Amino acid sequence: MRHAPALARLGRIASAATESRALRAAALDELGRSVPFDACVWLLTDPETSVGVAPLASVPPALMPELPRLIRLKYLTPVNRWTTLSRAARLDTPAASLVWRELLHAHGVTDVASVVFRDRYGCWAFLDLWRLGGTFADDELAFLDDVAALLTPHLRRCVAGCFETEGTGGTLEPGPVMLLLDAGLRVVGQTPRTVDYLARLLPDTDTEPVPAAAYNVAAQLVAVENGVDEQPPLARTHLAGGRWLTLRAARLGPTFDQIAVTLEDSSLPDRSTMFARACGLAARESELLRHLTTGADTRTIAARMFLSENTVQDHLKSIFDKTGTRSRRALLSRAAGTG
């Protein structure tokens, strides 16, 4: 198998990684040796809504001012959309892709290889590799499928690890944090603390942070309005420490030509949903966790779930094993972020 050594190296990279951004950066360096590319965009996604957050990108400098437009077109393009892909794909008919036809071809992009990182617990990331000259070959796409199968559980593990981090993520004050975007997703206004939050979301930038997560949520709203997708314009993302944010987008104003994107601390249901998916809980285990977050005891949970108390205890032991906790208190502390 021609790519077996590369897959072995990627496996070692993934196994050693504890943080998703570092994993993706190292994986891209290795990936480029087997599948050469000229630019890339690799986003984590909310596993339930598939809306992008936490981007890692290397694109031509000339495209940076057009980032809001690029994201908007990406979400409006049904061709090879990550939400519908079952395996890696190229642009077999580039002109059929709205994002290629309206933007990428003008910057010399001749092909895009798209791959999704998905398992039975949700969609965890998607990756686009751009090639300036030539197209991606079948064996390269097959290799990308192998890479996705290899890396997906490690990306999910890194998300689960975000719940293990101590602390609350700094001293950022709670309160309304909002970006106001125009029809082209360009920022036209924001509340005072927004920049501080964005800086935490993109800690490695030396310039004013780009609100890419907000662009993605707003673009999802536009996609829903245009019948491209049905998932809500919502995404949950790790901020810092044990703190998670929920981003939502909605139309604002008398003419509804502006989009408001709000950032707020994730609610307990939002956190517990992410926690359950990231830790690989089965459906009944996730349901049990939801009951635990309400303060219900074993007898009450058994009655609600139509189970015996012994079966509830068996499910609870399985949850402890999957989440690396040893008690209900530790489990709820991690899921709720109260530790």
Automatic annotation (TrEMBL):
Keywords: DNA-binding, Transcription, Transcription regulation
Residues of the HTH luxR-type domain: 274-339
One function term, GO molecular function aspect: DNA binding
GO terms under biological process: regulation of DNA-templated transcription
Identification of the protein by name: Regulatory protein, luxR family
Pfam families: GerE
Signal peptide: none
